[in-house]
Amino acid sequence: MNFQKFTIGDIGNNDYLIMDNGEAVLIDCSGVIPELEAVLKENKCELKSVFLTHGHFDHIQGLKKLQDKYPNVKTYLHEDDQETVDTVNDFMKMVGLPPIEVPRIDVHLKDGDKVKVGNTEFKVIHLPGHTPGGVGYLTDNMLFSGDTVFLNSVGRTDLPGGDYNAIVKSVKEKVFTLPDNTMIYPGHGAETSVGYEKRYNNIVTE
After folding, report:
1. Is 135 helix (H, G, I), strand (E, B) or coil?
2. Residue 76 CB: number of other CB atoms within 10 A?
3. CATH number of the CATH domain containing 53
C-alpha cells in the first residue's frame, strides 16, 4: 500500500489517495486534482471509491465532478452525516459562499465497519464532535482523522452539528487509546502521532 497527499484550496484541505494492488481510494474530495489521472496511471491503479471523513463543503467540493468523470466510483459516508451533505448549500448561503454541486452518497457507514482498497482494510471509527457523523479510517499504524484532531489542536465545534464535549470524548476515548506510534493524517495541516498529541494537545489534555 502507498499513498499520496494532495493539499487543495484556500483553507489547505488534505485529500489522500491510497493505492494498493491495482485499486485506489480517495479520502475526501476537496476540489479537482489535476494530477489525479496521471498518478493513477503511473501506479497502474483504478479509482474504486471515495471515503469521506465528514460532509462539510470543503471536503466534498470536488466530488460531483469526480463522480461525473468516474461514474463507477462509490462514495462512502457515515450515516449521521447524510444531513450535513444534503443541507450543504444552506450552509454555503449562511456564510455567503456560492452553492456547490451536491454529490451522491452510495454507501452509509457505521462505527466498526470495515472497508477495503486492494488488500488494505480500514476500520471505520466514528468520531462525532466536529460533525455528528465524522469518522476516522484506521489501518495498521495510520489514522486518517478528517477534522477531528490536528497537530496540537482539534476540529472546530461552533458550526451546525458541532459539539465540543463530543469531540473531546472522541479524541480521548477513540484516538488516544490507539498505540502511541499511530500516525495521524488530518484533513488540514501537518501529520502528527497519537503519542505526540497525548503529550502536547492541551485542548484535550487540560
Report:
1. strand
2. 21
3. 3.60.15.10
The count of residues in the chain is 206
Residue 77 in contact with residue 55, Cβ under 8 Å?
A: yes
Which H or E run contains 153?
Answer: strand 153-154
Which residues span the domain enclosing 115?
2-205
| Encoded amino acid at 47, one letter | L
pLDDT in tens, the chain (206 residues): 999 999 998 899 999 999 999 999 999 999 999 999 999 999 999 999 999 999 999 999 999 999 999 999 999 999 999 999 999 999 999 889 999 999 999 999 999 999 999 999 999 999 999 999 999 999 999 999 999 999 999 999 999 999 999 999 999 999 999 999 999 999 999 999 999 999 999 887 76
**Cell 476540489 sits at which residue?**
31
User: Which cell numbers in the block locate residue 198?
Assistant: 497525548
156-182 in b/e form (b: 16+ CB < 10 A) is: ebeeebbeeebbbebbeebbbebeeeb
H-assigned helices in 62-140: 63-69, 82-86, 88-94
Domain total of the chain: 1
pTM higher than 0.70? yes
| Bridge partners, residue 49, by sequence | 25, 74
